[in-house]
Give the backbone structure.
Amino acid sequence: MSTVLSVRGIEVSYGAIAALHGIDLEVNKGEIVTLIGANGAGKTTTLRTISGLLKPKKGEISFNGQNITGVKPHVITGKGISHVPEGRGIFANLTVHDNLELGGYLRKDNISQAEYERVYSLFPVLKERIRQSAGTLSGGEQQMLAISRALMAKPSVLLLDEPSLGLAPQMVQTIFRVIREINAEGTTILLVEQNAHMALMTAHRGYVMETGRIVLADNTKALLASDRIKKAYLGG
C-alpha cells in the first residue's frame, strides 16, 4: 500500500505548554485510520497541525511525498486534504446550498450536479433543507452538512474530528455508515473519535494517544482484542 500522509516527529506547543511530543503516524491510500485517546491526549491538535491550522515546532508532514509542514490551510485543502473540525464549523447564517458551494471554493472547476446528487444520496435530508439556513439544522444535520461541504473540495484525504460528538445513537449509526461508504468510494480517512468502539469497528488501523504521544499502533482487530484497550477505552 502506498503512503499518502506521513507525520514524522511532530512537536506542537500552545505557548509554554507542550501538546505533542514527537508524533509519528502514517495513513495509506484507501485506509480508514483512527486516532483514539482520552480528552486532552492531543488528537485534535494532531489534525489541526496536519491541516495547517497549527505550525509544529519540529517534525515533518508529507502528503503524496511532498513536504506540507507549515503550509497555509487553504493551500493544503487545494492539494487534496479536507478537514471537518470538531464542532462542525458550518456557516450558520448561510443556506445549506451556499455552504456546499463554499466547499468547492478553491477548485478550478465548477461543482457538477452529479456531485450535489452524490451528497444528497449520502444524506437525503440535506436535499429537503437545501434553502434552509444552516444554523437552523439539528446537530446531526449540521454534521452531515460539514462532511458534505468537505467532500465538495474533492479531497483524496478526509480528516474527521469527533463526527459523532453530541449526536443521538441513531444519527451516530448514520454518520458512520456514510464514513464507510465515502471510504469505499476511494477517499482515505483519518478519524478522531471519542467513541472508541465505533471508531475501531469502522477503521482498518488505529493509533492510541496519551498525553501528546502515540503509545500504541496496530490493526483495529488487534486493538479491539487488547486488554489494555478494553480496560481504558471500551469499558471492559
Notes: The first strand starts at residue 3 and ends at 14. The chain has ten helices and ten strands. The chain has a mean pLDDT of 93.
